[in-house]
Amino acid sequence: MKWRSISISILVVLAIGIAGYLFNSTESPKGNDSIPGTGIAIRLYYYNPANDQGPGGVQCSKNGLVAVERVIPETSTPLTETIKLLLRGEISQEEKIQGITSEFPLAGVSLISASIQDGVATLTFSDPQNKTSGGSCRVAILWAQIEATAKQFETVKSVRFVPEELFQP
User: Fold this and answer.
1) What is this structure's pTM?
2) 3-state helix, strand, coil in the chain (%, to 5)
3) Which residue pairs from 71-74 have beta carbons closer than 8 angstroms and sit at least 24 positions apart in sequence?
4) What is the mean pLDDT of residues 116-121?
5) What's 61's DSSP letter?
6) Tell me, what's the pLDDT at 38?
7) What does the alpha-carbon distance between residue 138 and residue 34 come to, in Å, rounded to a whole number?
């Protein structure tokens, strides 16, 4: 009888722990390696037009995306910090020599919030100057960069942009 009480207590503690983990809907992406003492290894997706050539030139597709490695500080909001870093558009001289480019940074564009619920990352942006608009090629690449960067986290299956008017040709 004593073992049964202990077993039930252990199951209750485990259930509470699992429930707490599952119901955390703000931001708990997984899939990146923590580097003890230095931070979390992440990838930012920039663009290399040389990798995206087809009939008539640049195809404005995901084929041109290039992952670059970065490390962010340990944080409980790695998706937020990763997207904010992407928006800064910091490309090293070596990456530029390799042909890697980005339209980021865009004046006035900022990430307001990021959350993950049922595999959907909802990214809310501020774009008071409509800098995310433009030609269909440009906005397709901007969209693809953010989407690929967010989807590196295994809990992110799709990305939703708010407001929906962002990234319009």
Assistant:
1) 0.79
2) 35, 25, 40
3) 71/35, 71/38, 71/39, 71/40, 71/41, 71/42, 72/39, 72/40, 72/42, 73/39, 73/40, 74/34, 74/39, 74/40
4) 97
5) S
6) 79
7) 33
